[in-house]
Design a protein that fits this description.
This protein is an alpha+beta fold. Helices cover 27% and strands 27% of the residues. Helix 3 (81-90) packs across helix 6, helix 4 runs antiparallel to helix 6 and helix 5 (119-125) packs across helix 6. It is elongated and about 100 Å long.
Length: 375
């Protein structure tokens, strides 16, 4: 009986601990912001980029193994689509847009980086070498459906971008450099250089690359979609908030839990991505669209038991920076523990019934009268 009491105490303690963890919340993560300048013949524009911590962590956890056959996997047009649309709104012509994209990447300080990086990482860390800057530029161009390739110079250990234009570049200050590949002419776009106002324009070739042998790398296998996007604005982006709540406090292994919340912003659109983690790495579970009131709902079925950390992320829009929810934790109860608990309950109930039956059916002691002797 003592063993049963001890086991019951342990199970009760464990469940109370899990309930405590389920109520635990970790503070909101801050967004990353970067400012860039763009200039046309008349005006200078300041473009603010905002990136959620969730999106940064997503790219940090992706595969960073680089071979010549997978250069294109580091080109991520979907993640840069909102930025590309803002830049294109001011520079509508294809040549003007390419030069504007070059202005943007020329403001990222040049620094030799041994490990390849995705554009979101390069923007946040604010440094990169020729290949990292080329990935950012190619992502911006591809996001506006331009025909883009990568130019790889193996002997020079260099990379830049090739882009098809309907007409030869008019703003190039030197004779245009290009490569004809698969029946299409691609003009060179050099992405290095820290002088964004007077940097390389499309069609211009650095002297050290004149006559260099170039390998054209098509963008086959580039990233089609990501769980979030970089938001941008020419004005000041207001902050936003996103909440997260569980439909129940306890989840049994194999069952479904509803996760919902709301985005607080004056203008609402876009998608929300749900992330879950059981360790250091976050896994993007699903992405859903906001409804007209800014609410979202997920139906999540954890496949295994254990302690999960969960958060939701909204990328933001032109008026509002994106936001990550507070991190919530929830414990998925294993089925075998319920069986053990159910077995213990049955044992306790049977024991009580037997005890009551024993007390009810036990023969009563017959008390004999006491004899007194009178004196």
């Amino acid at each position: 009986m003592r063993k049963q009491v001890l086991r019951k105490f342990i199970i009760t303690f464990v469940f109370e601990l899990f309930l405590f963890l389920m109520l635990f919340r970790i503070g909101l993560a801050q967004n990353y912001e970067r400012q860039f300048f763009l200039q046309d013949e008349q005006d200078t524009y300041q473009l603010t980029l905002s990136i959620t911590s969730s999106l940064y962590e997503y790219y940090q956890q992706k595969n960073h193994l680089l071979t010549q056959n997978n250069f294109a996997t580091f080109v991520t047009p979907y993640s840069m689509a909102l930025v590309a649309a803002d830049v294109r709104s001011v520079f509508p012509s294809e040549e003007g847009y390419v030069n504007a994209a070059l202005m943007l990447v020329h403001q990222i300080p040049y620094q030799i980086i041994e490990e390849p990086k995705y554009p979101v990482e390069t923007i946040i860390e604010n440094q990169g070498d020729c290949d990292l800057l080329s990935y950012v530029c190619a992502s911006l161009l591809k996001a506006q459906d331009l025909d883009v390739v990568l130019f790889y110079y193996e002997t020079e250990s260099h990379m830049n971008v090739g882009v098809h234009l309907p007409n030869p570049p008019r703003d190039a200050r030197t004779p245009s450099s290009y490569v004809d590949y698969a029946g299409t002419r691609y003009y060179m776009a050099e992405c290095t250089g820290n002088d964004w106002q007077n940097g390389w324009r499309v069609g211009e070739c650095p002297s050290e690359l004149e006559g260099a042998i170039v390998t054209v790398v098509p963008l086959e296998g580039y990233e089609q979609v990501s769980p979030g996007q970089v938001s941008s604005s020419y004005g000041t982006m207001e902050s936003s908030l996103i909440s997260l709540a569980f439909s129940q406090d306890l989840v049994i292994e194999g069952s479904t839990i509803i996760i919902s919340g709301v985005v607080s912003a004056s203008t609402l659109n876009g998608t929300v991505t749900l992330y879950a983690s059981t360790s250091e790495n976050w896994l993007a579970i699903e992405t859903v669209s906001l409804d007209s009131t800014g609410q979202y709902t997920f139906s999540w079925n954890p496949m295994s038991w254990g302690l999960y950390y969960v958060k939701a992320s909204w990328s933001g829009n032109e008026e509002h920076a994106g936001a990550d929810s507070a991190i919530a934790s929830i414990f998925v109860v294993p089925k075998f523990l319920l069986l053990v608990g159910g077995g213990l309950v049955i044992v306790v109930i049977v024991s009580i019934i037997l005890l009551l039956m024993y007390r009810t059916t036990r023969p009563q002691e017959i008390q004999t009268p006491t004899e007194y002797q009178y004196q």
